[in-house]
Amino acid sequence: MFTLAIVGRPNVGKSTLFNRLVGKRLALVDDQPGVTRDLREGTARLGDLRFEVIDTAGLEDATDDSLPGRMRRLTERAIAVADASLFLVDARTGLTPTDREVADLLRRSGHPVLLAANKSEGQAAEAGFLEAYELGLGEPLALSAEHGEGMAELAAVLRPLIDAHVDEEADAGVGVIEGEEDLEDWRPTAKRPLQVAVVGRPNAGKSTLINRIIGEDRLLTGPEAGITRDSIALGFDWDGVPMRLFDTAGMRKKAKVQEKLEKLSVSDGLRAVKFAEVVVVLLDAAIPFESQDLRIADLAAREGRAVVVAVNKWDLEENRQEKLAELKEAFERLLPQLRGAPLVTVSARTGRGLDRLHAAILKSHEVWNRRVPTARLNQWLEAMVGAHPPPAPQGRRIKLRYITQAKTRPPGFVVMCSHPDAVPDAYRRYLINGLRLDFDMPGTPIRLHLRGQS
Ligand code: GDP
Ligand code: GDP
């Protein structure tokens, strides 16, 4: 779906606008502070338009960086993850030097930008509104996020961008896949690179791995326009597959204090997870499956990403057979939610195993994108129910009527049934495991919703 990032200085009204667009339907809510709340992302409704919106305010971290530095990073992130940005300035306070810097960065990036002067209700805003023309980003929209003014105008400028995006997705075969044959053709394109994040504890070998992957013999297509050295997304081509790699601690200057580094790398990892399609959880073979590893792997699963577990520093292992058996056992026991996800052993130092990692990333991505035709799903459901009918709690017969795949990335299914609340968890798991096995969807989170018919 088309993704719009809202960028701008603190207090210009980003969150207010986000809330207005998304309402209460927040995609990411988590009561664990600092875990997933740091990025707000949701589905916006504006008239008949639907799109994803990201509030970059949530991306700010409490580092002691200067405001311009922070703004630059947030803006770069927006450029990397969104299809377009909505740059908000405050019509009441007028432009600041930081506004001008952000505008420069956006202009140079070539990324589609819409400019809006917020807080435009009333006369106090006129001067600031006119000033916004100075940014060289075209005609500003006059908005009032708080009062809901200018929303029709915003929709009018967004519509062509969203329409163009829909055409592009259709060209790439995204979201309109029907037959099995089409699935075979689904491949990342230069326009739509496969988005990968490498996450893991400090010293797991993330930077070594990334350097190895994008080493001399590979074609570097990044850093992307407007993205500077401590950059956040890197486009490159890995054996013929366009990819985009998201920021992890390994790609930036390391903090001096180890403790700080640890914190940084965890929250960076969390963010990278949100932006990625495939998350590579990198473990150190000597100390695999530590709590930090488990946490991030679990987060990736909960966020619905395709996960590949890579065990690094395999060159140091002596009893490989034995160690592999141990790893598999630990994987199944500690991360049951990732059942079927590929586990590959690699050595970032020597480069061994990288071909397997490449294959695992592609395969996971393909599965994550898979769409099963409705007719096959319903034959399958009939067989599943025939083999093992749902129970009849308190004599209420549960009828599963119909199944359809409502979404991909990750696969999500809806079953229409009577008494959805009465379906036991065990039965739901039976269906999910069946889908996974029968349609060969290992290692991807599968969502299953039971819906009643009214
Ligand atoms: P953020 O830091 O950019 O996310 O800004 P917020 O959304 O938190 O808004 C900062 C302040 O500006 C809050 O007090 C809002 O109530 C106020 N605000 C937001 N939009 C408008 C608006 O359209 N008009 C006016 N007058 N105030 C607004
Ligand atoms: P990061 O903190 O996850 O980015 O980890 P680094 O890439 O900085 O690696 C941490 C340490 O592990 C460095 O000393 C690397 O040289 C070492 N290292 C990384 N990958 C391997 C590997 O495959 N084998 C061995 N033996 N050492 C590795």
Protein model, in words:
By secondary structure, the protein is α/β, with parallel strands linked by helices. 37% of the residues lie in helices and 20% in strands. Mean pLDDT is 78; it is low at 25-39, 171-185, 216-231 and 249-265. The relative contact order is 0.08. β8 (233-238) and β9 form a beta hairpin. α2 packs parallel to α3 (97-109) and α8 (258-275) packs parallel to α9 (291-302). Residues 200, 202-208, 249-250, 312-313, 315-316, 347-349 line the site of one guanosine-5'-diphosphate (GDP).
| Residue-averaged pLDDT | 78
Largest sheet: 6 strands, mixed
Strands of the largest sheet, in order across it? Answer: 2-3-1-4-5-6
Bound molecules: guanosine-5'-diphosphate
Low-confidence stretches: 25-39, 171-185, 216-231, 249-265
What coarse outline follows from CA principal-axis ratios? globular
Total beta strands: 15
Helix content: 25-40%
| Element-level helix/strand string | EHEEHEHEHEHHEHEEHEHEHEHHEEHE
N/C terminus separation: 29 Å
Estimated share of beta-strand residues = 15-25%
Tell me the Rg in angstroms: 24 Å
Structural class computed from helices and strand pairing: alpha/beta
Query: DSSP helix count?
Result: 13
Organism: Jannaschia aquimarina
Binding site for GTP 1: 8-15, 55-59, 118-121
Binding site for GTP 2: 200-207, 247-251, 312-315
Subunit structure: Associates with the 50S ribosomal subunit.
